[in-house]
């Protein structure tokens, strides 16, 4: 049971010109996971979500959700399945003339929810998203974070199997983004709802995703668990996204030659030993100065970076690099050296 896209293409015709938004894309999102899709604007992310939520059909290929192939559905079955797929948006898409309560009621009525259960369901949803005291407020009087909470409550109204999030935090400030991501994670873990979340921000992926797909020009070019994406990005686009987060660049006054090198060390998992640089000092006849350092937490797992300026005999520098390469759980971060 999962979301499975097989060899999916989607082509739009714009003024006689063909735009290939998705190119023979295959992807499996496992049931119960949070799958993040990151890509620049125009990569095809929203198109991908619209195929999963049944707003559009692929030009070729198939999409199935929890064993049901969506292309085969029509009429009542299509409407029923659509209810099982919730969606939240960057701009919240609330009805401004209705209260918070009425915004959720609207969805429940449209899906012919048992009348006598509507009120208790809305109360339950508002409690879940922490807005019990805002039932009678209008969207215009809510903060961005509160609006998105209403969006989430509304998306969950029909007990969906899947929640799709299209840039759901892109209109929010960083602190509010964190609280909304926490809420989404709680919903995923406590209610077991599979989440597919698209974003152009690596910070969002870092906070919440179990696995991630990197998308560019209608294709998923790399797919992996989140820690691996941050520690060992493979594709150039992924490296670009990861680099944005670390932002390590070599200070302009540093000369690079046979006797002067910049080495960025990467500490994986629990290996960020404080005495590692001490070992380098002790074992090698080099001058070592620290240019930059940082520990990122990918959810709870540390990933450390240390940028060193090493000066000495060429041979000694080579030996030092070999020592690093042989150290367990420690690597040289080649990609950061490429930013010179
Ligand atoms: N309804 C549409 N009609 C024509 N072209 C579209 C339509 N939707 C998306 N596109 C085109 O498909 C490509 C992917 O768009 P989109 O899925 O919105 O990317 P993203 O969400 O990653 O920014 C873009 O080139 C976009 O212009
Ligand atoms: Mg989009």
Automatic annotation (TrEMBL):
Record bears the keyword Transmembrane: no
Similarity comment text for this entry: Belongs to the ABC transporter superfamily.
Stretches of the chain forming a coiled coil according to its record: none
UniProt xrefs under SMART domains: AAA (SM00382), NIL (SM00930)
Keyword Transport: yes
Keywords annotated in UniProt: Amino-acid transport, ATP-binding, Cell membrane, Membrane, Nucleotide-binding, Translocase, Transport
InterPro entries membership: AAA+_ATPase, ABC_transporter-like_ATP-bd, ABC_transporter-like_CS, ACT-like_dom_sf, MetN_ABC, MetN_ABC_transporter-like, NIL_domain, P-loop_NTPase
GO MF annotations in UniProt: ATP binding; ATP hydrolysis activity
UniProt xrefs under PANTHER family: AMINO ACID IMPORT ATP-BINDING PROTEIN, METHIONINE IMPORT ATP-BINDING PROTEIN METN
UniProt domain ABC transporter: residue ranges: 3-242
Cellular component annotations (GO), alphabetically ordered: plasma membrane
GO biological process entries: amino acid transport
Species in which this protein is naturally found: Salinicoccus hispanicus
Protein name: ATP-binding cassette domain-containing protein
Record-linked Gene3D superfamilies: 3.30.70.260, P-loop containing nucleotide triphosphate hydrolases
Signal peptide: none
